[in-house]
């Protein structure tokens, strides 16, 4: 289990709305939440519930209308070195090799090339792609490309890892393997993980807590503690019961 | 301008299942012959028909001289040095104009592609300039710059500028904004994002522009040398025709074709080296 000092997120009275067809559409309404250091929080919700918006605000890619986010007590304005984002698409630079892509984050931050590549080599191996270090993105499968994206985020050693439906584009088999990989990385890397998904099983497999964003505008957000030992067993009866509970939250069961 | 110059021919390599030597050797040699024939057969046939019909007198040999006569004229011109001077001055004109176009179009295109306001403001006038034939403007340039080198170089520069500029702009605009957002997440400044994401992403498109521009440069070179020049390959084509030195005329045309092929091939191999990541044959 992670025992870090940093990576604590405080969300206070966070609101955000968009204009859709000339009318304001509230996606987040006065949300309050504390994310613990080293925790794995998974955000679920129907489409349009604002889960990706919330993640993008945490990343500093979008600003809130009112209220705000603080990390370790410091208010968030824009992107920051203590956070890294893993997107749904791998977003690799096609002209860089796997190693070059993994080192990209560090190099952008001005870390000398040799040092960046040393670290990149370690994380490339961590995601199981050591022998593909010199391959170009077009030679990789979807799952491999996403692992490169994960390694790139880990290489900058963030306190908080933000994942926006990172496995959403993968096929079912690859997805299960990658969920196990993420669980392993999270337990090894001492990192606070905030992940958005629409896959309830994925949420239960990974989360300490699941945040359910309301489907109807203005309803309260709900938190579900997932008290299951790790590594988790998807076929276990308690796992299945959590799944039913979440489905009920969505009014589907 | 024809597209054959720009599109690189696609060769499909027949992959041998097993490439054992020894007994397979004659078959492999056979395959090489087949491959060469399938690629160059029609060209070889064309030249053969030309040669035969000219030397057999089926066509007027004074207008279409046999290939060997043209080759001899080419050799004499090169070895004797008369054509070398023409090549040098032509290369100088086209090279200067092309280099100037590169120096202007690539930085300007990179800038315009990034700053929307500049692109919006300049696009209409660019479209007008682009659609106005450079050849039609040549008399204007002659009026402004005289009949000397300046107007020749300028008309080539003018014509080569636009393909390169427009392709550079579109290359920059095609860069995936999601990649830029990714770079931003890692704290990239605008300059770093430009250097590490925008520019490398635009390179393939810039190369399309370079190859179009190189073809255009040779095209305009000849046109400009046909008016008011006393040296250069384009001049030589016209001059040889006036003096009825038809083999020499064809020799000059062959040199032109050769220059075009060399320029294109040079750019293709440079692109291969710089853009290995996008080369599917790798």
Task: Please report the two chains with the greatest interface, counting residues with C-beta closer than 8 angstroms to the partner's C-beta.
Answer: A-B, 24 and 23 residues
- What order do the SSEs of chain A take from the amino end to the carboxyl end, as H and E? EEEHEEEHHHEHEHEEH
Kindly state the number of beta strands of chain B: 0
Order of helices and strands of chain B: HHHHHHHHHH
Proportion in helices of chain A: 25-40%
The whole-angstrom Rg of chain B is 24 Å
How many DSSP-defined strands of chain A? 10
> Which CATH C-level class of the largest domain in chain B is it?
Mainly Alpha
User: Total helix count of chain A?
Assistant: 7
- What is the percentage of strand-forming residues of chain A? 15-25%
Q: Looking at this structure, what is the CATH superfamily of the largest domain in chain A?
A: P-loop containing nucleotide triphosphate hydrolases
